[in-house]
Predict the structure.
Amino acid sequence: MTSQRILRTGTTLLCLAAAATLAPTAPALAGPAPRADLRIGLSTTETQLDSYGRAVAVVRATVDNVGAAAADDATISFRLPAGTTIAGETLLRCDYATSVCTGSLGPVPAGGSAEPLRVYLALPMAPAGTVATIDATVSTTAREVTRTNNTAAVRTTYGRYADLSLYPGADTGVWAETDISPDGGPIQPLFTAKNNGTGPAADVRLVVEVPPGFTVTGPPTGDTAWQCDVSATQVACVAGPLDPAATVALTVPMTAPAGNLDDRFSVPARVTTSGVEWRDDNGNDATADYHYVTPQA
C-alpha cells in the first residue's frame, strides 16, 4: 500500500513538472522608451557703451542633448529687454512688439550638441551701471527626461569697457610672413596690443609662446616698461594701464633652429587683462609667421 502511494505521488510530480515546462512564458515587460534631454547654456558680455552711441552686448548660447534619444526639431527662443534689436545676421526671427526672438536649431542627436549661437544685441541706451536681464529657452516636440534645464538667464551691466586686440606686428592692418634661411638664425617677433574699447584696460598681459627648439636670446623690449618672466617655453609680460585707442608693443628676440626649405612656423601670442574686458575671444590671439626660403644672392 505504501509503495503504491509513493508511485502515484511520483507520477503526479512528474506530470506537474512537464506541465510547467510546456507552459508558455509570459513576455517580459518593456522598459521606458529612451528620451531626449536638452540642456541650454547661456553667457553674455557686459553691455558696451560704444563710441557710436550704442549699447551692445554679445550673447552666446550652447544647447546639448544629454538624453538617450534625438531631438529632431530643437528651437531656441530669447526674451530680450524691451527696445532691444538684433545687430547683424542671425538665424533668429524677432517679434519686437513682444521682445521675443526665435530660431530653429535643427536636429540634435543623443549625446550631441547644436551649433553654438552668438548674437549681437543692440540694447536701448541707459546710463552706466544699468543692469539688463536676457533669458532663453530651448524646446522640442520630442518627449524629454526633464525640462528643468531648458531655460537660462544672464545679467549684463552697462558701462565703458576695454576691448583688447593683438596684432603680429605694428598697428598697420597688414601683416606678412617673414622669410628666414633654412639654416635658421635670429628672429624678432613683434606684437602690438591695442585697446579698441571705450574704457581703459587695468593692465596688459601678453604671453608669447616659445616654439620647441627655439631659444630666447635676450630680454624683451618695447615702447613701455614691461615686466617680464622668461622661461624656455614662454615669455609672460605685464604692462601698466592702456587707454582707449592706445597701443603698446613688445619684441621678443629669439633664435630659430634650422628647417626644411619652404617649411613654415609660427610664434603664437595672446593678450588679456586682469580687469573687465568687453570681449576676450575676439582678436586676443595672434601669430608671427615665418617661412624658410633660399636666401637671395
